[in-house]
Amino acid sequence: MNKVFLSLLLGSMALTSCTQKAAQPAEETTPQASLDGAVATLSDGTVVTWIKDNAGERKMPRDLFPEAPDSLFEALGLQEGVPASMSTFVMKADGAWILFDTGLGADKGGQLLNGLASLGLTPDSISELYITHYHGDHIGGMALEGKPVFPNAEVYTNELEYNANAENPQASAALGAYKEHLHLFNYGDALPHGIVALDAAGHTPGHTAFEKAELLIIGDLMHGAALQLENPQYSGNYDQDKAKAAESRERLIKYAQEKHLIMAGMHLPEPGFIE
């Protein structure tokens, strides 16, 4: 693993961009993805922007990972916690604005709507929501007082996750606000704009990752990348099925490495992407 990649794990802002070889004639150049801070531009022209939903700094506490030894935390310099964030991502694809997860909600201090406004967007701008899973920091911003926050959005959500949360009041309220615009999918399904739903189960029963061109949106696959990217066997207490979460983490990290994908994660440290 190169030094640039390792620096990203520890929260460094040093990011590299994929560039075309100058010697190639322009007409023969193969488009590549590029990463510039909090913005990823994919080879098909899709642009994805990280939006930080939490205010201030966030670190995952050491006791979130009880199975990881103290010696490992000391070796990695993570005794004070693992750099992280609470995040969402907005994508511009085929002229449509797509939001992946909705954060905590403005009424609970979430910064998503402020982040969208900084891009010149309003809730009305969003035409599609893709939901990784139903924890409150991912669906909290979907609805307010029984009404959809994103009134023009079609909602895409995993059928396993939907069925597993039949008794979940927050999920029922959030999804109920979009009942006429709800689309259930299964792992492996091809979704609009060339997005593919991938199995990331373990954190929750229907936890989903989304692949689009050279991008892999991993949801809560990792809560502490500086620890778990090199040690995927250690799950956090937030994972409902720790063994399954560890299997999904190892599998998808290997998948991203083999395909040279950029990973975008809801709890990755600033700026939300890992090459």
Largest sheet: 8 strands, mixed
Number of helices: 8
Which percent range fits the helix content? 10-25%
Backbone shape: globular
* Span of the ends, CA to CA: 11 Å
Q: Which structural class do the helices and strands define?
A: alpha+beta
Q: How do the helices and strands follow one another from N- to C-terminus?
A: HEEEEHEEEHEHEEEHHEEEEEHHEE
User: What is the residue-averaged pLDDT?
Assistant: 91
Please provide a written account of the structure.
There is one protein chain. 22% of the residues lie in helices and 26% in strands. The protein is an alpha+beta fold and 275 residues long. It has an eight-stranded mixed sheet. Strands 13-14-15-16-17-18 form a six-stranded mixed sheet. The protein has a two-stranded antiparallel ribbon with strand order 4-5. Strand 15 (208-212) and strand 16 (215-219) form a beta hairpin.
Summary tags:
275 residues; six-stranded mixed sheet; 22% helix; globular
Q: How would you summarize what this structure contains?
A:
The protein is an alpha+beta fold.
Write the layout of secondary structure elements.
Layout: H1 3-9, E1 34-36, E2 39-41, E3 47-52, E4 58-60, H2 70-76, E5 82-84, E6 87-93, E7 96-100, H3 112-118, E8 126-130, H4 136-139, E9 143-144, E10 147-148, E11 154-158, H5 159-164, H6 169-176, E12 182-185, E13 190-191, E14 195-199, E15 208-212, E16 215-219, H7 225-228, H8 242-259, E17 262-265, E18 273-274
Parallel strand pairs: 7-8, 8-11, 11-12, 16-17
Antiparallel strand pairs: 1-2, 2-3, 3-6, 4-5, 6-7, 9-10, 13-14, 14-15, 15-16, 17-18
